[in-house]
Design a protein that fits this description.
Blueprint: E1 3-7, H1 12-23, E2 27-32, E3 47-50, H2 56-62, E4 68-71, H3 81-100, E5 107-111, H4 114-117, H5 137-150, E6 158-162, E7 165-167, H6 175-184, E8 186-189, E9 196-197, E10 199-201, H7 202-215, E11 228-230, E12 237-238, H8 239-249, E13 256-259, H9 262-279, H10 287-294, H11 303-309, H12 317-330
Parallel strand pairs: 1-2, 1-4, 2-3, 4-5, 5-6, 6-11, 7-10, 8-13
Antiparallel strand pairs: 9-12
Helix pairs in contact: 1-7, 2-3, 3-5, 8-12, 9-10
């Protein structure tokens, strides 16, 4: 039985990945802190190894005897650039070094982000060979993480995936869209323009990551795009149409779109960030996200993933959104209505 180490296993995407690995016959090893809550992972009978991304020796111990390492851990938001770099660049460097130090280095799958590549032009999709042009501090930190794992790619067989917006059961960020539409029927659009976006459900992302780890190409020095894959649903949406799809899943016949001009968005983001700073918490509405909203469309191509790995999402966005909404209701995050709880596949 193959063994796979997952960092960030207690996070939203990490929990989905542990389940997918378990269902596909892997013995899962979860990197956790002493204080990590592990109850949600126990049904998948993982081995827990205590460590920290800033402690190289603990990572060496965690990576011992595994065949694959899925590096998901990191920060998605912070009011300090240094914190993003510490988690996303240094953490990636340490996990890659820990893998390289093994007698038999495992395959390393680094979960990056479309933010590391940057926005697309109009409805034209970004492809892996495009030059990276991140516009946010988060995107720059994820690109720094990519460069960090590249330094060890000669010793470690390494691949990178770059997902766009990720949603699904357990997510607390995109949940804010569901909650706002469920409560008021209002969908706030952070732009006066109809920009286009790629998105993916967490379970589909995890299936893709597993397929890339098993049979994808690896990073190499002579082709900077080799071993890097955009992972997304093939359907491209606008922020307005995403709100309509969520409204449909919630049983609302009509969703009212409220568009926010960028100067107003920036002012609100600055206030939100200041409040978060004073409270010592990172908020999803912040100046970094405002920069991404201003940048335009965020669309990526999945052609390379299909051609080289043979993977495409098993379900389209609307049923995945409905599945997510049903889970939120079932968990009591949203008010219950006459809806069926859908099971995942």
């Amino acid at each position: 039985m193959k063994r796979a180490l997952v960092t960030g296993s207690t996070g939203f995407i990490g929990r989905h990945l542990v389940k997918v690995l378990f269902e596909n016959g892997y013995q899962v090893v979860c990197l956790v802190r002493e204080s990590s809550r592990r109850e949600a992972l126990k049904p998948y009978r993982p081995e827990f190894r205590v460590g920290d991304l800033q402690d190289l020796e603990s990572l060496r111990r965690a990576a011992r005897g595994v065949d694959m390492v899925f590096h998901l851990a990191g920060l998605t938001k912070s009011h300090r650039v240094s914190a993003l770099m510490q988690a996303n660049q240094k953490g990636a460097s340490f996990i890659a070094k820990a893998c390289a130090d093994q007698i038999n280095p495992p395959t390393l799958l680094y979960a990056s982000s479309l933010a590391a590549a940057g926005p697309s032009c109009g409805i034209g999709a970004r492809v892996e060979s495009d030059a990276s042009e991140p516009v946010s501090n988060y995107g720059k930190s994820k690109l720094a993480g990519e460069l960090a794992v590249r330094e060890f790619a000669v010793q470690n067989p390494t691949s990178i995936v770059r997902p766009p917006i990720v949603f699904g059961e357990g997510d607390k960020d995109v949940f804010n869209l569901f909650r706002g539409i469920a409560r008021t029927g209002v969908h706030v659009i952070p732009s006066l323009h109809d920009y286009f976006f790629s998105a993916i459900h967490a379970r589909d992302l995890c299936f893709a990551m597993l397929r890339v780890a098993e049979s994808g190409n690896r990073l190499c020095t002579h082709d900077q795009s080799a071993g890097t894959y955009f992972v997304a649903d093939e359907q491209v949406v606008t922020y307005a149409s995403l709100g309509e799809m969520i409204g449909h899943a919630l049983g609302r016949e009509r969703v009212v779109n409220v568009r926010i001009p960028h100067p107003v968005l920036c002012s609100f983001a600055a206030i939100s960030e200041l409040v978060g700073f004073l409270k010592g918490e990172a908020r999803i509405v912040n100046l970094d996200k405002a920069r991404e909203a201003k940048a335009g469309s965020w669309v990526c191509s999945t052609e390379k993933l299909k051609e080289e790995v043979g993977y495409r999402c098993v379900r389209t966005l609307q049923p995945r959104i409905a599945q997510t909404a049903a889970w939120y209701r079932h968990q009591g995050w949203l008010p219950l209505r006459d809806t069926l709880i859908q099971t995942s596949t």
